[in-house]
TrEMBL record:
InterPro entries: H-NS_C_dom. It comes from Polynucleobacter aenigmaticus. GO terms for cellular component: nucleoid. Residues 55-94 form the DNA-binding protein H-NS-like C-terminal domain. Pfam families: Histone_HNS (PF00816). Belongs to the histone-like protein H-NS family. The keyword Lipid metabolism does not apply. SMART domains: HNS. It comes from the Bacteria. It is found in: Cytoplasm, Nucleoid. The keyword Lyase does not apply. This is Histone. Keywords: Cytoplasm, DNA-binding.
Length: 94
């Protein structure tokens, strides 16, 4: 059975090997990506642009319900406001 100090030394050596492997594999991945980018003449917008129909990053959602007496709106997500709780929601659709 290994002693505590021996195990710590082994862990230190493994941590070093892990860091080296990550750096090696990352460099390999970058090299492969560069080859593909050059081969297909890709741009940053080709790689990172949002596809049609993708959600917006702002997280804004159009309101779905409106309180006719106050004009307050609700998207239908999250906890329902008091003015619509327990009521037929179809009456409040926008």
């Amino acid at each position: 059975m290994s002693s505590y100090k021996e195990l710590l030394a082994q862990r230190e050596q493994l941590d070093k090997q892990i860091k080296e492997a990550v750096l090696r594999e990352k460099a390999d991945g970058i090299a492969k990506a560069k080859i593909i980018i050059e081969q297909y003449d890709l741009t940053a917008s080709d790689l990172f642009s949002r596809k049609a129909g993708a959600r917006s990053s702002s997280g804004k959602v159009a309101p779905k319900y409106r309180n006719p007496s106050t004009g307050d709106t609700w998207t239908g997500r999250g906890k329902a406001p008091k003015w619509i709780e327990g009521r037929d929601r179809s009456n409040f659709l926008i």
